[in-house]
Amino acid sequence: MDSVLRAAAIYGALLVLFKIAGRRSLAEITTFDFVLLMIIGEATQQALLGDDFSLTNSLMVIVTLIAIDVGLSLLKQRSQWVSQLIDGGPTIIVEDGRILKARMRHARLIEEDIMEAARSSQGIETLEQIKFAIIERNGKISVIAKES
Amino acid sequence: MTHPTESEELRSRQFPVREDMAYQLKVWRFERVGWYVLVLLVILTLLGLFSRGPLSTRDVHSGDGRLGVEYEMFHRNGSTNPMVIHLKGQPNAVLEVELVGQWLEGFEVQTLQPQPVRSASAQRGLKLWVQADANGEASLYLSLLGDGLGLYHSRIATPGGATVSFDQFIFP
Questions:
Q1: How much of chain A, in percent, has pLDDT values that exceed 70?
Q2: DSSP secondary structure letter of residue B5
Q3: Number of CB pairs < 8 Å for A and B?
Q4: Whether residue A26 has pLDDT greater than 70
Q5: What is the number of other CB atoms lying within 10 angstroms of the CB of residue A80?
Q6: Does the record carry Transmembrane as a key word (chain B) (predicted)?
Q7: Cis amide prior to B82 (ω within 30 degrees)
Q8: How many angstroms away from the CA of A89 is the closest CA of chain B?
């Protein structure tokens, strides 16, 4: 019984924690983010398994996690509200070469983040060349160039 | 170029993606409030809300000072914490102490030092006899493994009438 409860508790807690961290937090993986992710994994492992290292326990934990995950995706498919709650929506941060400053501040982004995404995805050099920059639901910044 | 006002910026756009800025503002507020909560949790943990810290470490004495207990108010399931019982009596005497309450259901005694001269079960707990030194003082060092969940009430008493009562909470 407790393997199911443990897995459900950890799933819920991580869901809330990563919502607090915001969608950008682990979207662009730097070396440090990668190490951070591994440490979070290590810290979670003990709480997930407890002191029971049996095959049954670890399988039940995995089964529970996947069951919740699939269940949530089914819910998201059926309900627009759940989908928005869990995945959020896209947000425009650059409109016709003009930065929307209030939005950037709330999203904890700076101009450099946008230009980095613009350079790597579109080969764009200046802000004026950007028609739209959008923070997607997964936290990545997608850039649409102006037609010249 | 005129600077757009904040309210104009926060208006929902329909192109190229359909936005719901009212909801997005709520998300951002949740992130901000959540961050405060995380910082608060870190501070509380440093203070010992989840054992080992000023909020958790307690030192209680009976009215006559013949019995003292140092313990952790907060435990975590699966972690070990120390508990020290100080006794005061006649020089070189064998002192009796009784540990009663629910705590034996919630804790597993991993070590008990020094070995008591004698031990026996009591109505709801156990009795220990320990050898006092030339000053009439004796100490018992226990390490307790939190096994249960929730609140446990304990009482430690000597036949002389010295009693201390305390509560311990075990986090999951």
A1: 97
A2: P
A3: 54
A4: no
A5: 9
A6: yes
A7: no
A8: 7
Length of chain B in terms of residues written: 172
CATH dotted code for B57-171: 2.60.40.10
Helices (DSSP H) in chain A: which residue ranges? 2-21, 31-49, 55-78, 80-87, 101-106, 111-122
With a threshold of 0.85, tell me whether the complex ipTM lies above it: no
* Rg of chain B, C-alpha, whole Å: 27
Would you place residue A25 in the very low, low, confident or very high pLDDT band (cuts 50, 70, 90)?
low
Distance (Å, whole) CA B41 – CA A8? 21
Q: Are residues A78 and A7 in the same domain?
A: yes
Do A103 and B37 make contact, defined as CB atoms within 8 angstroms? no
Structural domain including A41 reads 2-86
Residue with tokens 């930065």: A99
User: Are A42 and A99 contained in the same domain?
Assistant: no
CATH number, domain with residue A105: 3.30.240.20
Q: Are A64 and A103 found together in one domain? A: no
Same domain, A81 and A133: no
Question: End of a domain among A86, A104, A127?
Answer: A86
**B30/A89 touch (CB, cutoff 8 Å), yes or no:** no
B7 forms bridges with which residues in the sheet? none
- Asked, as a colleague might, if the bond just before B116 is cis with ω within 30 of 0, I would say no
